[in-house]
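Risk mitigation, structural track. In case the binding assays with zinc ion fail to produce interpretable data, a predicted complex structure has been prepared as a fallback.
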Amino acid sequence: MSVTGRCFCGAVRFEFGQPPLAARACWCRDCQYLSSGNASVNAIFRTEGFRLSGTVAEYVSQADSGATMRRRFCPTCGTPLFAHSVDRPDVMVVRVGALDDPALGRPGGYIWTGSAPDWGHVDPTLENCPGQPGAVRRG
Ligand SMILES: [Zn+2]
Ligand SMILES: [Zn+2]
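Fallback model:
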């Protein structure tokens, strides 16, 4: 089963050869910027077999977890599309809103709930983590 998606304007299209490994909602401060205040729902895919058409712009920053993240977005419409840690090139995160079928991105849990505003929605029936799950502590 392949999974396809695109940015809002359609200039960037992408495809993965297999369904996501997992999906989760992230309340980290970075995601709040990128999703207009809400938690961002992100699907994690294996990079292998990833196909991209169109031109993306990139912004590199350090995440709250300490990881250096490469974030790619459409330079025409600004849709955030992909992110991956430079330490983990084998997997990448895709913003679920960019999938042609967002139903594939049902979150299995919430992360960085400690950064959510007091009105922020967290599903108490799912696994929740106040920060980065399984974070490697860095000096
Ligand atoms: Zn676009
Ligand atoms: Zn986040």
